[in-house]
Amino acid sequence: MSVHIGAEKGSIAETVLMPGDPLRARFIAEKFLENTECYNEVRGMYGYTGLYKGKAVSVQGSGMGQASLSIYTNELICDYGVKNLIRVGSCGSYHEHVKVRDLVIAMSASTDSAMNRERFNGNFYAPTADYHLFKTMTAQADEMGMTYHAGNILATDTFYHDDPEHWKKWADFGVLAVEMESAALYTLAAKHGARALTICTVSDNLATGEFTSSEERETSFTEMMKLALETAFKL
């Protein structure tokens, strides 16, 4: 067991899907995996391992924000030997053409967080997805006939920003969408020699004002879930 994950050694697969919402982790496990076992309930952050088309895959909630995700990422890699981490999350679009329910695959993750500035003594590190994972997922999406957007996203530490117009600067520089985890995920995977990739479903659009409910975010983003699992199967 690790500090925050109550799993025995060997009970977590080498490939882990990481939704922020632990209830989404439970939904994925119950809907898509067979012979599923819950290996973690510590702090209500559910983790499951099961079989997808006969291959072991785990699903672990990470919580919201880079601080929370960093805890689970470190422990999954360092204590349980996880090799591939695929974040399956939601994001807010910065552009009208990146519509609600569209898929966004994050090639890189800009951030307003100070975590990496502290880590690199004030210098700027560029958190980037693993190319093999990215190539595998985009090829799988093409094979499945799915449309998606690929590019830079913003991993922010601030959900309720003081300046309601702050997002427009990021949009002007081609950032597709905003979420709260991926810069930390990509940085820690690189540090520990693992592979990481984020795929998100657009849950709301800052340019148009359209949004989805919390229940929809938990249970209806199944296209993203299927693509992540098919990618995991190909690894």
Automatic annotation (TrEMBL):
EC number: 2.4.2.3
One BP term from GO: purine nucleoside catabolic process
Glycosyltransferase listed as a keyword: yes
Annotated Nucleoside phosphorylase domain residues: 16-232
Domain of life where this protein originates: Bacteria
Chain segments annotated as transmembrane: none
GO cellular component: cytosol
Coiled coil: none
Alphabetical keyword list: Glycosyltransferase, Transferase
GO molecular function: purine-nucleoside phosphorylase activity; uridine phosphorylase activity
Keyword Glycosyltransferase: yes
Pfam families in the cross-refs: PNP_UDP_1
Catalytic activity field: uridine + phosphate = alpha-D-ribose 1-phosphate + uracil
Entry-linked HAMAP family: Pur_nucleosid_phosp (MF_01627)
Protein family according to the UniProt entry: Belongs to the PNP/UDP phosphorylase family.
Name the UniProt record assigns to this protein: Uridine phosphorylase
Species, as recorded: Spirochaeta isovalerica
Lineage start: Bacteria, Pseudomonadati, Spirochaetota, Spirochaetia, Spirochaetales
